[in-house]
Amino acid sequence: MSNPDWPLYEVFVRGKRGLNHVHVGSLHAADDRMALTHARDLYTRRNEGVSIWVVRSSAITASTPDEKDPFFAPSGDKVYRHPTFYDIPADVPHI
Amino acid sequence: MTTAPAAPADPAGPADPLQQHFDDTIARDQRVEPRDWMPDGYRRTLVRQIAQHAHSEIIGMQPEGDWITRAPSLRRKAILFAKVQDEAGHGLYLYSAAETLGADRADLTQRLIEGRQKYSSIFNYPAETFADVGVIGWFVDGAAICNQVPLCRSSYGPYARAMVRVCKEESFHQRQGYELLLTMMAGTEAQRAMVQEAVDRWWWPSLMMFGPPDGDSPNSAQSTAWKIKRHSNDELRQRFVDMTVPQAERLGVALPDPELRWNEERGRHDFGTPDWTELQRVISGDGPRNAERVSRRRAAHEEGAWVREAAAAHAAKQAQRREEGAPA
User: Fold this and answer.
1) Is A13 helix (H, G, I), strand (E, B) or coil?
2) Total-model pTM
3) Taking a C-beta distance cutoff of 8 angstroms, is the pair B227, B279 a contact?
4) Which CATH class is domain A8-81?
């Protein structure tokens, strides 16, 4: 079923045209092409997808949970980036 | 990269901010995700539960797989193929979830074929006739649905998400089983008798799928506190009985329990006690098919070794050619 020499791949599926690819899980495969066909067999047995991306898990760079606070802090104190920050009189239309 | 903060003197104490953050996440009913800090016990419990669940799906291919070559029609054969393929898929979703906790997939397979990790006791019973295929879909997949629907809200994100996929597909499994039985019940007297015999064989083992009674389930309290588990074994068993009784009536079969009756006061069914010594026996390896199930899984793994090696060799050769700039 799996082999220590077969790397782990993460699988992303586009459910239908107009949607983003979404992460659905992972699998092991000997190479990229096998990862794609395995992903088709495993994650799209019932027309769940129109497009698949596979990428080696080792190639993903992720933010770490430890960095959570400082890493996302720059967006935390900028309330003026949100439309609700601005007071507009109720009688102004279409805004 | 992640640097582990210095461990406080009492890791479970309120002074530990990591533990506190984990506890808050559980209390707020939010999901724990793979790279979050989590207590070792939580990780170990999940790996054990998810691995057992994955192994059950993989071993669960065997009782029904036996009937693929003997299905009575092309329609039934195609359905059975699809169902058994789904079980493989469910096993792989779950192994994928276990890997997010740091488990190694090849190691999990090794543990299964060496008998170091368990799988559901139900798959150690044989599918004697084609009616058993129907009853497995109806009872075993029905019981699995009772167990798995609450797991879609399990506190560990990857496990819960795998369960959502699994539950969507289980519904087909249960319905194909019930439909198969309806077809047989509309057939000859011999076919109806065959269905009843299969029901008699599978009813009690299916009730045992929910595990030992609550008073005898040592890990349940902690799993419930961690919101890995949402309902007790006995509660899920009761739900299964209440759900199945009217289906049995509609089908025209008798469930083999003289104590089974509607309890007006409770608004639920009373039912007899499964033979817990039998469950213990089957779990500890002495069921009707334990040895065969594991040895077959081992044979499949060993006989497939050359395919895995060939694919790896091919991949290595292609990679080398690309490196050398030659057309792949």
Assistant:
1) strand
2) 0.90
3) no
4) alpha beta
